[in-house]
Amino acid sequence: MYKLPSIFFLYLLCGLCTLNAQTRKEAGFFAGTSYYIGDINPTRQFYKPSPAFGGLMKFYFNNRHCLRFTATYGQFRGSDKDFTNQFQIERNASFFATLVDIGLGYEFNFLPFNFNPRVKAFSPFLFGGLGYDFPISSPYLVSPHFSIPFGMGAKYMLSRKVTVGAEWSFRKTFQDNIDGVTSPGGQSENANLSNKDWYSFAGIFLTFRLFDNYGDCPVYLQK
To answer: Which fold has domain 28-221?
Structure first.
């Protein structure tokens, strides 16, 4: 059942490897925090932040548009004991889970992001795409599943080859059992965005320009 999504991502990865040789490429690392939003925690941002880290690769088509591939490990936890409403006190549910999120997406720079720091060295950006998530340790979630990643960030070019940035992203899942609670129990305060579980990553990244053995192509200087 899950062979088809795996083949899909393998096909996309192979496609990335065959991009035009003039496409700018970056690869690097992400480190930060992860947290979950669901039936136990319906609205609180940065609830029980836990370690998250991973890698990313970007393929720039010009100075505003790029394709991004990410792989991120995250931990997620929650407990009804952290909330004061009577329903959760009586339910007393809790969970801890870890997973790896694989994502492919499109990133748009609000400012022209040239690979020459003397021209444009900073830009905020938005991104969105498609994700596929693999549970590593979870008492309730046992099967891989699709998600929809989207988020925002900002980046700054430290040098011709090194970029640093920060981003905050969300993953909309189509699961309601990450936390082991599949029913809001008729409590409106526990209903959360169609009662599906979400999770989020926030942190910093550092990327390095790859295969920089040619001069700047004019396409990357376009406004």
So the answer is: Porin (2.40.160)
